[in-house]
Amino acid sequence: MKPALQLRLGQSLALTPQLQQAIRLLQLSRMELELELNTALESNPLLDMTEDGGEGEDGEGSDELDAVDEAPAESADEEPPLDIDVDPDPTDYRGSGATDEDGLEPQDAEIEDLRDHLLWQLNLTPMSPRDRAIATAIIEAVDDDGYLAESDDTIRDALASLYTVTPEEIESVRHRVQHFDPVGVASRNLRECLAVQLDAFDVQTPGLSLAQLLVADHLEALARQDRVRICQRLQTDEAEFETALALIRSLVPKPGGSFASTNAEYVAPDAYARKVSGRWQVALAPGCQPRLGINEHYASLIAKARREDASYLKGQLQEARWLIKSLKTRAETMLKVAGAIVRAQEAFLEFGAEAMRPLVLKDVADEIGMHESTISRVTTRKFLHTPRGTFEFKYFFSSGVGTVDGGAASATAIQAMIKRLIDEEHATRPMSDQLLATELNRRGINVARRTVAKYREAMNIPSSNDRSRLG
């Protein structure tokens, strides 16, 4: 075959470097964006961080980010019920007391976890080096609830390089650790944990002996609330039983529950929503709009530099302009999405979680004229501050469940209803999933029992059997 040339027409989608950069910046969190900009400022001499915005040789600078207006609503006949204010006074959103009298930000004390607390007590307890090593191994094996789930063999293996210990030695030291604060820590099970706490009471405590007997032999019957049968079996009257029961209720089933294992996580909002003169306003946080400008000194050197240097500076100048434009696009998109969310969820802002409307990515994408994937990127690790708290953008999105009037209720609203019903239930007669579904159906929410169970488990709420309290 002879070689020949052929001309073909075709279309293909290509991501330009500018578009790739814009997409990458869009999905960065606020902290990640700050790190990205610091890297860019260090590597690109044509970039400057300015307070009032600098101007490049083409008149463009950081003032590109000074004003970002939300796109108008799709219908020209309808006035959007949302005002947009992009550059608010930051003090409008910060409560008083953010700094102390000296102008310094208050520092949070480091939170002590359970193991640190136990090791501190161990250091103050007289013990032989052998027993201290055993106690340390036990403390390190205690879980966040305060229980010791590791076996004696595991603890013995952990000490093998130091000492050869027996199960009797481990048990002896463990009993000493159990009387550290909180009492009952390092217990193997709930019965042992409660028994150790009861042992710490004065022997003259009313109901103590009966409480110890109930914990030792009748804990399962107590959980079933088999009060009458227990009283008959132990030949005790109801008054004595109530006294012992009150003593058991005062115990702590999870000794480590009061100790935080991790520090609280703090987030900086990317946008703010507030109500002014009866209308909801949305504003980007000032920190989300970094003011970048072109370094005039280096820009002026392009015409004077040698060919190699001029080529390098021109490339850096183009990259700087791309970055400034990408930041402007990011701010505009984030503001549009935040505005659409607030418009859709005004009922939530007014009345709480039970008024949350169903909202999916396509709803916002159609309103602001963008692709769903773009909305997904914007809603990831971005936070909106509202009078009801600070929430990730994704919090406001949820699927809907039909109602009897043909409408829809969001999953978030249904979860809030379920939680309120459980909070208001009688302590001794918790509502089952079927009863919760029946009550929601009575209120016009078409929801099945298995759906109620799924939502309840998503909120980490135990079943009705586990919620039943001794009453």
Automatic annotation (TrEMBL):
<keyword id="KW-0731">Sigma factor</keyword>
<dbReference type="GO" id="GO:0003677">
    <property type="term" value="F:DNA binding"/>
</dbReference>
<dbReference type="Pfam" id="PF04963">
    <property type="entry name" value="Sigma54_CBD"/>
</dbReference>
<feature type="domain" description="RNA polymerase sigma factor 54 core-binding">
    <location>
        <begin position="107"/>
        <end position="298"/>
    </location>
</feature>
<keyword id="KW-0240">DNA-directed RNA polymerase</keyword>
<dbReference type="Pfam" id="PF04552">
    <property type="entry name" value="Sigma54_DBD"/>
</dbReference>
<dbReference type="GO" id="GO:0000428">
    <property type="term" value="C:DNA-directed RNA polymerase complex"/>
</dbReference>
<dbReference type="InterPro" id="IPR007046">
    <property type="entry name" value="RNA_pol_sigma_54_core-bd"/>
</dbReference>
<dbReference type="Pfam" id="PF00309">
    <property type="entry name" value="Sigma54_AID"/>
</dbReference>
<dbReference type="InterPro" id="IPR038709">
    <property type="entry name" value="RpoN_core-bd_sf"/>
</dbReference>
<feature type="compositionally biased region" description="Acidic residues">
    <location>
        <begin position="49"/>
        <end position="90"/>
    </location>
</feature>
<feature type="region of interest" description="Disordered">
    <location>
        <begin position="44"/>
        <end position="105"/>
    </location>
</feature>
<comment type="function">
    <text>Sigma factors are initiation factors that promote the attachment of RNA polymerase to specific initiation sites and are then released.</text>
</comment>
<protein>
    <recommendedName>
        <fullName>RNA polymerase sigma-54 factor</fullName>
    </recommendedName>
</protein>
<feature type="domain" description="RNA polymerase sigma factor 54 DNA-binding">
    <location>
        <begin position="311"/>
        <end position="469"/>
    </location>
</feature>
<keyword id="KW-0548">Nucleotidyltransferase</keyword>
<dbReference type="GO" id="GO:0016779">
    <property type="term" value="F:nucleotidyltransferase activity"/>
</dbReference>
<dbReference type="GO" id="GO:0001216">
    <property type="term" value="F:DNA-binding transcription activator activity"/>
</dbReference>
<keyword id="KW-0805">Transcription regulation</keyword>
<keyword id="KW-0804">Transcription</keyword>
<dbReference type="InterPro" id="IPR007634">
    <property type="entry name" value="RNA_pol_sigma_54_DNA-bd"/>
</dbReference>
<dbReference type="GO" id="GO:0006352">
    <property type="term" value="P:DNA-templated transcription initiation"/>
</dbReference>
<dbReference type="GO" id="GO:0016987">
    <property type="term" value="F:sigma factor activity"/>
</dbReference>
<keyword id="KW-0238">DNA-binding</keyword>
<dbReference type="InterPro" id="IPR000394">
    <property type="entry name" value="RNA_pol_sigma_54"/>
</dbReference>
<comment type="similarity">
    <text>Belongs to the sigma-54 factor family.</text>
</comment>
<keyword id="KW-0808">Transferase</keyword>
